[in-house]
Specification:
The chain is an alpha+beta fold. It is built from 8 helices and 21 strands.
Length: 353
């Protein structure tokens, strides 16, 4: 069941913004569509919602085909069993909290008693049980966002769609609301697509992440897999901070950089020749320079910047080849001579694009 997308194409002015993509979302799974502005993620979401009509492809929600270009099936948005939370929340200012949340049920002509019961339950789930009669104009941004979520879940949809719902919130409220959305989604066990350009949201919320670029899927996998083993440099930069070192790879999985340092990886090399070694900032270890020959997977450098981040420091270390970022609880002064090291399992080689 869940969501099935096959061969989806959407064009604007003859140019594809979604270009023959395929993916499946299982029952109860949350998948984030991640990528830069213009990559096609919101257009994909709107096609699933029925707010855009694709040129070709097939979309099924909870086992029901809602769009099929070949057979001419186009189910209207209000007949698709979805709940959607927009970036702007779309809260009606002339309605109370209750009236906003009740709207999808009244459109479906449900009985008043059922509406009262369902709205009350939805508001309790998002922590707004006491806001029943509050004017929507008296709500904070975070409260408006919760009303939008309550309205999306009140009719018990088969699918939830989120279009960058936290972008208008401040950082602290964004962290809190992100955790609440994830907890609610797990409780409801509803298939969910979450569109975002924020890698932190995607990594923390998702069962899987679908990385998009230029209307196509670059990689689909668990947050852990994509973070540790990105397919290419684009994915590496989109999903988490990345340090790159220009290297030349041999066919045994070893590489040297222009300063003569040697890099080893535990993974099969993508080929031989010019490449880039990827090491995440949290996988680089920083220590004092002991002098002498350092051996493989070690780099000498100088601390050029130190930022205190609370529970750890963020360093910029200048080496002969690059100036990588390093995250560590160890304390070093700026201008300190240090050695960076890493495990071969934390280094991967990516061919230059």
């Amino acid at each position: 069941m869940g969501i099935s997308v096959k061969g989806l194409v959407k064009q604007y002015a003859g140019k594809p913004v979604v270009d023959h993509i395929d993916f499946e979302i299982a029952d109860g799974e949350l998948v984030s569509l991640l990528g830069p502005s213009g990559c096609g993620k919101t257009t994909t979401l709107r096609c699933i919602a029925g707010l855009e009509t694709p040129e070709s492809g097939r979309i099924a929600i909870d086992g029901e085909v809602v769009f099929d270009a070949d057979s001419g099936v186009v189910v209207e948005p209000y007949h698709r069993n979805i709940g959607m939370v927009f970036q702007s929340y779309a809260i009606w200012p002339h309605m109370t909290v209750f009236e906003n949340v009740a709207f999808p049920l009244r459109v479906r002509r449900m009985a008043a008693a059922d509406i009262e019961r369902r709205v009350g339950r939805a508001l309790e789930r998002v922590g707004l049980g006491a806001f029943h009669d509050r004017s929507s104009q008296q709500l904070s941004g975070g409260q408006q966002q919760r009303v939008a979520v309550a309205r999306a879940i009140v009719h018990e949809p088969a699918v939830l769609l989120f279009d960058e719902p936290l972008s208008n919130l401040d950082a602290r409220l964004r962290d809190q609301t992100r955790a609440e959305i994830r907890q609610l989604q797990r409780e409801l066990r509803v298939s969910t697509i979450y569109v975002t350009h924020d890698q932190t949201e995607a990594l923390s919320l998702s069962d899987r992440i679908l990385v998009m670029h230029d209307g196509r899927i670059r990689q689909l996998g668990t947050p852990e897999a994509i973070y540790a083993r990105p397919n290419d440099m684009f994915v590496a930069e989109v999903v988490g901070a990345a340090n790159f070192f220009d290297v030349t790879v041999d066919d045994r999985g070893a590489a040297t950089d222009t300063s003569g340092a040697t890099f080893h990886t535990a993974f099969a090399p993508p080929g031989s020749g010019p490449a880039r070694a990827l090491i995440r900032p949290d996988k680089l270890l920083i220590g004092p320079d002991p002098g002498g020959d350092l051996g493989p997977n070690r780099l000498r450098g100088t601390v050029r910047q130190r930022l205190f981040m609370g529970g750890y420091y963020e360093y910029v270390v200048e080496t002969r080849l690059a100036s990588p970022r390093v995250l560590s609880s160890a304390e070093f002064a700026e201008k300190a001579q240090v050695v960076l090291s890493f495990d071969s399992g934390d280094c991967i080689f990516l061919l230059k694009e």
